[in-house]
Amino acid sequence: MYIADLHIHSRYSRATSRECTPEYLDLWARRKGIHIVGTGDFTHPAWREELAEKLVPAEDGLYVLRDEYRIKDGSVRGDMVPRFVITGEISSIYKKNGKVRKVYSVIILPGLEDAERISNKLEQIGNIHSDGRPILGLDCHDLLEITLELCPSSVYVPAHIWTPHFSMFGAFSGFDTVEECFEDLTPHIHAVETGLSSDPPMNWRVSALDRFQLVSNSDAHSPAKLGREANLLDIPMSYEGLVQAIQTGEGLYGTIEFFPEEGKYHMDGHRKCNLCLSPSDTMKYNGICPVCGRKITIGVSHRVEELADRPEGYVREGAKAFESLVPLPEVIAASMGCSAASKKAGKEYAHILSGLGPEFEILRTLPIEDIRRVSGTRIAEGIQRLRDGKVERIPGFDGEYGVIRLFSADELENTEGQMSFFDMIGAAAVGAEKDGCTDKTVGAEKDDSVDKTVGEEKDGSSDKAGGEDKAGEKNAAEEKGIDRKGSCVQTAALNPEQLRAVTSGAARIAVKAGPGTGKTKTLVSRLKYLLETRRMRPSEITAVTFTNQAAAEMRERVVRETGKRSAGRMMTIGTFHAVCLDFLKAQGREFFLAGEAELRELAEQALDECGQTMSAKEFLEQVSRQKSGISDAQTGQAYDRYEQLKAEKKLYDFDDLLLCTADLIESGNVQPGWEKSFRYLLVDEFQDINLIQRRLIKIWHSFGQELFVIGDPDQSIYGFRGADAECFEKLAEDYPDLEVIGLKENYRSAPQILTAAETVMGRRESLHANCPDNVPVRVVQAASPLAEDIFIAKEIGRMAGGVGMLEAHREAWENGDRKVRGFGDIAVLYRTNHQAHLLEKCLKKEGIPYVVAGREEFLQADPVQGSICFFRYVQDEGNLAAAQECARLIWKLPWNTMTEELIRNTAEKLRPSWNKKKPQKFLEEWTSEMGLEEDQAMAQLAGMTVFYRTMDEFLSALELGVESDLKRFGNKQYVSEAVTLMTLHGSKGLEFPAVFICGAEKGLIPLESEKHPADRDEERRLFYVGMTRAKEELVITSSGELSEFLEELKKKNGENGENELPDSRIRWEQAAERKVEEDFHQMSLFEL
Q: Are 34 and 455 in contact (CB under 8 A)?
């Protein structure tokens, strides 16, 4: 018979002992008598490296510690050599079916090679370096799928399934069935881990668990805690035998259990109120603590009662055996009147082990007389009572360990200060710290979690007529400008202003739509109206947007709204540049769209030949301004040479697409019939158009019948590109018959957010809030940029209800009524991309997954630009200009016949993969081919591939995409829930339940520099855009002198006799260090 403890942690996990090393795990496994011990934490690279160094293969799939690392201290009799099996635990925090889920999973693997392979995949999903148990925003279904795909012989076990806040059946963040969690992959789950607060009889009451094996493990955070729970196995010593036992029960004799009452979450209650309740008591009090009025923490017993369909005392047919034990150090401590972590108890423990052998033999099988001869009467008597089940059980609750008594109060009075087996947690902490062990001090994170006491609250922003859909209508269309993650609209419900805009018969219509007023909903409804009511041909409609993402979503929504896929396919929907690119190609123009590297080289050549000292970057910016019609552009003679060099290579830059389209149409040298697709022209984000785009609109509309534009002058934030906040007034000058319609009903933001945002704009109540009241806007000042970013990272963890068990417990107590958010509900906005660097480090440190959106600096790196050039050449082998630039940047070779042949051969080799493989796989092949695997910029480029289905689509985004089109996962390439990081400019058109705006200080907001003095009106609008991205919570942070916009808010907050912004609308705070200590307290026998 073997004993196995498969769920433990290394020293690389949070809140673990520094002695969680292979040497000490081996030592304590021998002391305990554990034959197979899990390694834990296989995902952590440093731990895998240590395991590879210190372990050697033994039986198939098992390892042993190398002899030179084995600790020989004389405390263990016999020569048993523990086996190690590769294991790890992963924390999944994600949103599913409208609720934030927090589930821990244990994965068992046949070898370190498999651990390496799975870890490499998971590293693409999240940060696996900061914690041995990584936090991923990944659905458990997807985690299981990845595990099975990469290692079919792996074993996946949902961990401590009843823990209230981090488990599959957890009361606050779990599911009601295994099927709800794992869906179609449920048949691949064969076992569940019961956890410290439940035992097999409790699980037998749930018939849905009959087909699963019940396993138990310690979840030890220090070597001394090994074997608190374990498995009894009658198997051949091999990985295959272990898997057979866990998956089928063949060879699984039974389990060693905690008394469930010992667990920290067995009963309901509030530890700070010293209140322990039965499930019936909790129901009597309607879940509210009668002492403090907060929500009661629901325990495992209560949750089992909710899901049970069998009576208490039911015995499952063919159930495995189980034994309930307490650790020997606890028995010794109670008998000797000291702490289990004290030197006195430790000395006696070593004495007993050296005289009798491993702990489990002493507790389970050795004759009591033999024990008495070595340990004395009281310890022997305690062990006998333990074996007989003659124990008094005082249940744990709300993070408070329970107490198991082996002696009555009278017996204790006659002993010399015997203590509880589970010493006061504070006392244990002192001893543990001395030994480098903090297991129970900070929580052996098995049933040690508190999160989401609020449960899943109602959606904070009610959907009303003209606004978003009812929450939960999964397939409803998303509003652009609404949260991309799932905020929905229902086109059947339009308010009067929206209905007027949708159904107006005017030839020219301009809709001024404030943030959250249903702008894209109105635009899509107008398209539907044209198609279904007025029966216009889809091929005669063109809708122009400002991002590829918005265009794709609009097309999808048209298909959903009309039910006609052909309508979405035949209609022209795209950005100005995409529409012009297709137009020029259709007109037979032969050219190649130049990449940034090619343009930069041509600019340098032109500047050098003309003797101008301007940098290539600045020159290209000036060229773009000149082509956009901005009068102050200064390019000098180099402009003409630059254009000549482009023409020689048949290259167009981004702005040429628009200019050449306008010039071609005005020249009349166009193929007949082109104008049909512009008969009904609709323009989104009208406030962002520049002079050339305005010129195009006028040209297109002059050949068409109707013009419909929609936007918000208060969100005009691209003045540096030539956009004009007065564009609506100028349109009215061009078309005196223009019908102007205003949308004023806001369905996005809480009143607190709208009030603050409107105040920044210097007005009140121009928008009417339809969402319910929520928390005040928070303005938080920090002492430094680092303190600011640490605050943001910590606060995101708190918004998520705590990313670790202790944080979850604290958060549930301190902010029990706060809504728990998924990572995908949260965005952090900043003025410049540079601000994200420090923030990313802080998020990684906290283990919080994030995604960066925007055109970042890494895209300018030579390997990235060279790769993009190669991609263009693979897509079109006639694009020799791209091949030449690729040769310079990647191969570092001069262009000649041999170089051309080399690049052509490489392209031919990879072209089948280009056409067949997903972008992520193609990038892997390309970087491997060119030896670019270690290049950081290429790794960041690879992080973008997950958002695109084909390489053509990916290249199009790189060529034509604007900031919000381009996304990069921080250290990941697999879609999962993540916090969004992006600039204020990139956030326009999006929405998130919770938004942070960081760096709201002088010099950044408004952005000031010597070269470019701030346009304060535009910067004010930009700040307004950022504020109005928030639905329910807005947190503005600063680490320097407050932004002048915040100073204005402060004046409205009660200074100078004004009080337009009371504390119920905005709250001013200082970022402070939060106490990390927890006042966990374990009652002693004398307190009871």
A: no
Residue type, 730: K
- Report which of 791, 805, 802 is spatially closest to residue 1080, judged by C-alpha positions: 805
Alpha-carbon distance of 790 to 777, in angstroms, equals 19
- In whole angstroms, give the CA distance from residue 631 to residue 633: 6
Cβ partners under 8 Å of residue 1055, min gap 6: none
Task: Tell me the average pLDDT across 247-262.
Answer: 93
Instruction: Return the C-alpha torsion angle 558, 741, 468, 538, nearest 10.
Output: 0
Give me the sign of the Cα torsion angle 584, 586, 589, 592. Answer: positive
Question: DSSP secondary structure string, 133-173?
Answer: S-EE---HHHHHHHHHHH-TT-EEEE-STT-SSSSTT-TTT
Region 426-443: mean pLDDT is 35
Torsion (CA) 1041, 1047, 1053, 1056 in degrees, nearest 10: 110
Distance CA 757, CA 1046 (A): 11
User: Whose CA is closest to 466, among 427, 431, 514?
Assistant: 514
CA atoms lying within 13 Å on the CB side of residue 1078: 27
Question: What tokens does 995 get?
Answer: 């938004």
Query: DSSP letters along 577-621, please?
Result: HHHHHHHHHHTT---EEPPHHHHHHHHHHHHHHHT----HHHHHH
User: Residue 1016's CB: how many other CB atoms inside 10 A?
Assistant: 12
Residue 452 pLDDT more than 50? no
| Residue 385 token pair | 């009572």
Q: Are 475 and 560 in contact (CB under 8 A)?
A: yes
Among candidate residues 238, 258, 222, the one with its CA nearest the CA of residue 28: 222
Contact 872/595 with Cβ under 8 angstroms?
A: yes
Query: In sequence order, what DSSP letters do the residues of 637-681 get, joined into one string?
Result: THHHHHHHHHHHTTEE-HHHHHHHHHHHHHHT-S-TTGGGGGSEE
Residue 1057: what pLDDT? 43
List residues bridging with 613 in a β-sheet.
none
What Å distances lie between residue 151 and 61, 87, 108, 155, 921, CA to CA? Answer: 13, 13, 10, 9, 19
Which pair of tokens denotes residue 407? 């002696």
Residue 1013 sits at the vertex; the CA angle it makes with 785 and 1053, to the nearest 5 degrees, is 55
Q: What is the DSSP letter of 288?
A: B
- Say which amino acid occupies 127: N
pTM: 0.70
Q: For a pLDDT cut of 90, what percent of the chain falls above it?
A: 56
Closest residue by Cα to residue 681 from 712, 705, 714 = 705
3-state secondary structure of 494: coil
pLDDT at 833 over 60: yes
Q: What is the DSSP secondary-structure string of 736-802?
A: TT-EEEEE-EE-SS-HHHHHHHHHHTT-SSSSEE-SPP-PPEEEEE-SSHHHHHHHHHHHHHHHTT-
Q: Torsions phi, psi of 81, nearest 5?
A: -115, 110
Q: What is the DSSP letter of 220?
A: B
Cα atoms in the 13 Å half-sphere on the side-chain side of 822: 28
Query: Among the listed ranges 247-261, 806-820, 826-840, which one has the minimum average pLDDT value?
Result: 806-820
Write out the two tokens for 263: 């667990």
Rounded Cα distance between 642 and 602, Å, is 6
Q: pLDDT tens for residues 597-616?
A: 889 899 999 999 999 888 99
Tokens 């981004």 found at: 654
Q: Which residues contact 473 (CB under 8 A, 6 or more apart)?
A: 488, 490
Instruction: Report residue 834 as tokens.
Output: 């540079």
**H/E/C letters for each residue in 522-560?**
HHHHHHHHHHHHCCCCHHHEEEEECCHHHHHHHHHHHHH
Distance CA(174)–CA(154), nearest Å, equals: 24
Of residues 93 and 272, more confidently modeled:
93
- pLDDT tens for 663-691 read 999 999 999 999 999 999 999 999 999 99
